[in-house]
Structure formats: structure tokens, C-alpha cells
Amino acid sequence: MKKLLKRTIAVAACYCAILLPTTATAQTDLDAIMMEKSAFCVGPMYSYTSWKNYWEGTLKRDNLNLGRVSTQMIGLMGAYGITRKLNALFSVPYVSTKASAGTLHGMKGIQDLSLFLKWKAYQKRMGDGRLSVFTIGGVSFPLSNYTPDYLPLSIGLYSSTASARLMVDYEQRGLYVTGSATYVARKNFKIDRSSYYTTQLHLTNEVEMPDGASYNVRLGFRNQRVIAEAILNQWRTLGGFDITRNNMPFPSNKMNATTVGFNFKYVLPKIPQLSIVVGGSNTIAGRNVGQSTNVYGSFFYVLDFSPREKSSDKPSKTN
Amino acid sequence: MKKAIYLSAVVFIAVVAVIVSCSKSIEGRTDNAPALAPANIDLNAGTWKPVLLTSASEFAVPAPAATNTPDYIAQVNEIKTWQADLTKDEKAIVKYWSAGAVLRWNEILRELVAKHNLPPYQNADGTYPFPNANNPLAYPQFPFANPPYAGRAYAYVSAAQYDALVAAWYYKKLYNRAAPYTVDATVKALIPKSDLPSYPSEDAVVAGVSVELLKLLFPGDQDYIQQKAEEHKRARIIAGANVRSDIEAGEALGKAVAQKFVTRARGDRAGAAAGNQAQWTQLETDCIARGETPWYSLELPKRPPMLPLFGKVKAFLFDSLTAISLRPGAPPLVNSPKMKTETAEIYEFVNNPTRERTRIVHFWADGVGTYAPPGHWDAIAAEDFIPKNFSEVRWARNLALINMSLMDAGIVCWDTKYFYFNPRPTQLDPKIKTITGIPNFPAYISGHSTFSGAAATILGHIIPERAAAYDAMAQEASMSRMYGGIHYRSDCEVGLVVGKNIGNYAVQRAITDGAE
Lengths: 319, 516
Fold this sequence. Notes:
The complex is a heterodimer of chains A (319) and B (516).
Chain A: H1 2-10, E1 18-19, E2 24-25, E3 39-51, E4 53-56, E5 59-62, E6 69-81, E7 86-99, E8 108-110, E9 112-126, E10 129-142, E11 161-172, E12 175-186, E13 189-190, E14 196-197, E15 201-202, E16 206-207, E17 211-222, E18 226-238, E19 256-267, E20 274-287, E21 293-304, H2 308-311
Antiparallel strand pairs in A: 1-2, 3-6, 3-21, 4-5, 6-7, 7-8, 7-9, 9-10, 10-11, 11-12, 12-17, 13-16, 14-15, 17-18, 18-19, 19-20, 20-21
Chain B: H1 2-20, H2 70-84, H3 88-98, H4 101-116, H5 147-175, H6 180-183, H7 202-217, H8 222-238, H9 244-266, H10 277-289, H11 320-325, H12 337-351, H13 355-365, H14 372-385, H15 392-420, H16 425-428, H17 447-462, H18 467-483, H19 489-512
Helix pairs in contact in B: 3-8, 4-5, 4-7, 4-14, 5-7, 5-9, 5-14, 5-15, 7-8, 7-9, 13-18, 14-15, 14-17, 15-17, 15-19, 17-18, 17-19, 18-19
């Protein structure tokens, strides 16, 4: 029992996703917490993102014909400890969008599957503190044939991605700082139209999707029961073009966003396998994205798949 | 342990390097279109019936210098100098323009339409500014290339190119000066050789006529247009297809013919099509007086109706009385059971979207930021013309027929829309949320259906083996507006019929213009 409890707490890892208007980021792949070997943490999560103002290029404006654009997401997320130093993570969101004004119909559907492999490559004690270095690789791809060419009400950008991240974490007596940089390669995709205009006319249905980069800094406190952290995140599209005056957005726009947020996790003392996560964020600067506010919450439950004879006091099987 | 950091960094860099090295450049469908090599050079096209010119020889083109004169030899040497040292860019422009002058200028025009197809943002007081042709670069930029504007632009450019090429063909046959690669065997032909006389240059004719019309239609984009024209003319000299005097004579002829069209455009009543507040109010009052529910804008703030007087613009294929006679009967009364049924049908469509219907809606939407429905039909036509190996003059003739029918479809459609001033489905049932933007003008009859009916009819005449396919496309384009939630069935079905009637005027012209 004790061992299970310990394992559960160590599993602080399992919480997740804020959905930027431009990028879905499961937070587990952005933190320095690892699952124990053979522990599987899984749970539902809900997130609500909305904006009234957005940046048309660099010009901030509202749009009476959209009102408030909101995105709701229900997702299933999970993480599994392949070893103590190597974790696999996944998330599957169902997304629905809505505009509070105007005449445009919202959209809904299953969005993209994200998979990550997180490797704790290096760890070193430094006096009181501990320094860890991680590398994280990820892929994502659409799970349904949704259309990305209906922004801002599309449920996603439809571009398959591959990402590579280097992350450094330093912890001292529960206080920590985690920093990471990520390169996201984004694959071209096809839209329903046979031509489109960016800064020139393209006579093709294939969209050249610029890559992106993100930077993430987290500052907070963590122990076996609690995580409380402040988060600064920056997403940069490496290329892309601005929405022209009073035009519609397009998936290959130069979407940039800087968000600040918080994240809080609490492990239930009486049911240590179960944890609650809540968080939120605000977009403080952006380009070709909504000035969005996001809140999310989720539950996570830890299942232990380690061989029974090792984790149990009683070797005999019972019915 | 340093080793581990080093290792993780290496892994990271390797992964990133692999990802980044994937090439993403995209290719347009016509980027590598083959060089034009007409199966038939249409040597007698100088006898074809022009649209506005009184005759093919209305504008004089001076006789060219003989090919044994020092002047001509100097011009041939200019080609040789270019060809002695060709850069990659020079080879690229030769290849690009070799696909055809009419094709490339149509693509440029479509690009300009897409760039300018943006409704102006409102003023602080909730009114809307209008673009000003005399100050095209000030916001809102001139023009707002909406569907009627676009249809008219395509028609003028195509019809003018056609007339100018008929004139060019007349002089080509008259003066019969061979191409430089024929005169001098040491001149390389970087494009397929042709027996067509090269004076005046058909490419320069198209460049000249296009520049003049685009100056009128897109006055804020002169730099871009001029740069394209210079590149086009240079490409023909580099290719060994024309000497400079071929180019100069062609350009002068193109510009002269263009003036006839510019004069017509200035007087075709399109300039007054936006109307004014008194006229907008009158439309509403008249509709109420008939006992009907008037259309109103569903945009916030309410936007004045798009080009309410475009129905009065002078058509190319018929006179104004005929235009009025093409106007269909009234739509179902707003309070009739039929209209209730039709509105309910649209409500069903928008609330039960299938992926295939959404695809159809977006494929045909051709809304904000696109080359508009007439441009979509030009794209369909152009891509089907490429494998046909038409001569330049036949390319122009076919596109002129299509685009005149598209412009005229716009005229009859807009006349009908503002004659009945019928509300959109969302106005009658606000629960109808649409899968594409609601255009800011009355519903009856559907513009997409009218444009598509007209274009499919004349295209089916030009390429008979594809007639059924064009009809199916028109049908799909028409239905897309119902799936999208922005038109009733009556709008679409009647729109297609009206469009076909207009397309038949183009077919009549095609049968009698001397090209068949």
C-alpha cells in the first residue's frame, strides 16, 4: 500500500492541456515530472477558451459579426511510465466552436491525436538542488476529416506535426523553474478549395504550412501533494502571412501568441490515486490570433501495471 | 554525465534537422503548363467577328521592315545577345510565359480579384466607406472586387484581348513576316516553332491590351502589372519568338484597341452601381408597397446592399430590353406555405451537415478573398483549355465568350435580386446559422447558380465532350448555396435556368463569329 501511495504521488505528471487558439499543448509534455515505471495515469479534461478581440495582423479589433468566439474541448489524456526515465503521453480532444453573434455556424468533431515520448536524459544533484534535462519528441495528426479552412470556427488546423523539445528543470526544496524550447514541424495539408490567396494566388488545394516554435517557462512549488505554478508560454509561427484588413483568417497565417497562466494540481489525501487539476491562461500579446482566455479542469486516476509480485505484499492470487 | 547532456542535445538537433529538411514547397496546377503549341494556328482569325471593333483593320498597324534591312538584323542580334548568356530567371520567365499570354494574364487578373475581394470595414459611426477609384491606395482600397465587379473585369479584359488579337491576326496574315528563328537559323527557338507570322507579336498585343484595362480596373496595382508586362515582352525576345519591332507594334495595337473598351467601360453605368441612400431606401419602400417583406443586411452594422444598380449595366451579349426580359418571375411569397417549406429545408441542411456537403459548400464558396465565382469558372475553363492546344486568338475568343456570359449573368441576376428584394433564409428564420458567409444582397436568384448556368452552357458548347461534366459542376455549385444555408431551392433552380438562357446568347455568338 505504501509503495502504491508513493508511486501515485510521484505521478504528479498527469494533467494537461490548454488549447491555445493556435496550438494544442498537453502540459504533461511541458513539465519536469515523470511517471513511475508501469504506472498509467489517465483522465478526462475539459477546457473552455474564448475571445472577443483578436489581432488582424498586428491590429487589435473586435468583430460584431462574430461576437465572442468560444472553443470547448473535452479530452482524454494519459501518460505511461515505460521506465522511470522514459514516459509516453497521449491526448485526444473533442472540440466544438461557436460564435455568439453573426450568422456563422459553429463546428465540432474529434480533433488531433497527440503522442509524446519524454526522456529524462540527465539528472544531477547540485548542493540542495537538483538539475534535470529532458528531451521530448512528439507527433500529432488529425483523427477526423474536419476542415481547417473555416477559421476562426474550424476545430483545428489539420496539419500533422512533429515536434522536438529540449527542457531543463531546476528544483530546490520544492521550488522549481522549468524552461523549454520546442521546434514544431508542420506538414502541408489539403483544403476543400481548389485555390486560395495568401500574399499571392495559389492554384492548388495544398497549403504550405509554416513551422512553429514555442518557448515555455514555469515557476512554482511542488511536493507530493501539490503543484502550484505560474506559466509563461510563447508560440511563434516561423513564416506565414498577416490577415489583411477585414479579411478572414487562414491556417497558414503568421499566428503568434504570448500567454501567461497558472496551473494547480492537488492529490486527494484519502484517494491518492486521484488528483484534480485546474488552470487557466490569458493571451497578453498576439498576432493573427484571438486574445483568448482559457480555463480548464480535469481529474486523473493512476493505475499500476507493474508486476504484482513486486508491488504487493501477498504473492498469492485471489479471486 | 556531461556525456548525457551532449547526447540529448545531439538527439534533439538530429530530430529537428530531419523534420526541417522535409521540403514543403507547393506547386500550382499550371506552374508547369506546357508551352503553347497550337494544333491549328487559325491563320484566318483576322476575319472573325470582333466584339467592339468595327473591323479588324480599324486601327492601323504600319508595315514592318523587311527582314534583310540593317534595322531588322540589329533586332535579331539583340535576341542573340540575350541567348548567349541566359540566367536561370530568364529561362524561368520564358517557360512561364510560353504557356500562353491569354492564360497568364487571366491568372494575373484572377489574382488581382482575389487580392481585392474584401468588403470595407465600417466607419466609427456604423456607416461604411466606399473605395475611390481616384485614390485607390487609401483605405478602403479600390476596387472591392466583389462578384459583379469581378465578372465585369473578366469580361472587359477577355473581350478586349479577343478584339486586339483578331486585329493582330489580320495584320499577321497581311504582312506575313516570319518569326526570327525562321529568318535566321542561328536564333534559337526556346519555345515551340510556329508558322504563324510574328508581326505584330500576339503576346505584346495581349500585354498591351491587358495593361490598359487593368490600369482602369485595378489602378492601385500598376507597379505589379507593369512589371509583369515588361517580363512578358522580354520573355518573348529572349525566347527568339519576336524581335523588338514585333513587340512594339503589338503593344501599340493592344493599347489602341484597349481604349475602345476603356471608353465603353466608363460609360456602361457600372460607376453608378453602388447607388446612394435614397436609392437603397427606395428598394425597401417599393418592396413593402408590393406587400412583401424586404431584404435587409444581416451584417453588423447593417451594410448597404452590394451594387444594387448593377442590373442596369450595359451587357455585352444583349441589349437592355433583352436583359429585362431575361428576368424570371417572382419568388414564392414570403408568407406562402412554399416559402415556409423551402426555409425549413435549409434549416435541415445546416443542422445536419455531412462532410461531403461541407466540402461542396467550401469548394464553391468563392467568397471573401477569392477570385469570385466568375474566376472559378475561368479557372475551370483555363485548365481544360491547356491540353486543347488552342491558338492565342482562340484562347481569347473562348474566354471572351465565357466571361461576357458571366458578366451578363451578373447583370441579369443583380437586376432580379433588386427587383424582388427577397430576404435570405436567416432573415426569415434566425435559427439558420450558415456554413459560409451570407452575401450582402437579396436572395432571389442565386448568383452562383446564374453564373454557373451561364458558364457551363457556353463551356459545354466549346468542349462538347465535357458538357455533361460542366452541367454537373453547375448543379453542384448551385446546391452548395442551399447546403451552406444561404439560398432557398427556388433561388438556385431558377438561377440555373436563367444562367443557361444567358449562356445560350454566348452560344449563338459562338456559332456566328466565324471561328467555328
